[in-house]
Amino acid sequence: MKTLKIFLFLLLMIGINAFGQKTDTTYLGSDWKPSTKQLNSYFRVTKTIEEGKKYEISDYYKTGELQMTGNYSSLNPNVWDGEFNWYYKNGKQKAKNFYKRDELQSEMSWDANGKQTLQKEYQKLNLIKDGKETYEYVTMDKFPKYPGGMSELYKFISAKFIMPENVQYSPGKVVIKFIVDRDGSIVDVQIAQSVHPSIDKEALRVVKSLPKWEPGIQNGKNVRVNMNVPIRID
Questions:
Q1: Of 96, 114, 132, which residue sits at a domain end?
Q2: Low-confidence ranges of the chain (pLDDT < 70)
Q3: Is the pTM of this model over 0.70?
């Protein structure tokens, strides 16, 4: 009976959430500014998935064909968050971008015949310059990738890292910088930000033991790419 009650409660909650979603339609001119139904070039359907956190946006040509789909995490101001897709009036895909909290992560585009014309990835690199933490955006066709992704990278580091004994230190972050070479191997491994000499040494050992990555690609060619890996020490 308890299971049944829980199941019914979940169904009830799902029903409440579904009825609670709000949908609004806005008419837009050719300049994408608010217009009237009679003069619009596009119209936008905004579905509130979770107030203040998630909104599904669908833009349409005046004649009803889908022009764009995407997600906002805020409407005031507009914050693009997630995958966005644009379409030609004939239904073929025009572009696909991915945003993380309004920051462009990657973009792809196609011409009207379906031929791909652009593929770019953007990465916000954590850099240490003159002892200060800074950020820099770089653009590539494809960034180096650790086998299985970043979660697998940190699993590897966690499994291999052995904390030196009898070391007095303050919690912090050791940052290792290195180069992913054209063949995916890890070279020129250095300390960018130190916590303690013994901990730094162990961090260097672990990063030097990393397997090969998928190399970075720029203009269709494998290239050497500078990377940073922060390791939190608590």
A1: 114
A2: 1-21, 123-140
A3: no
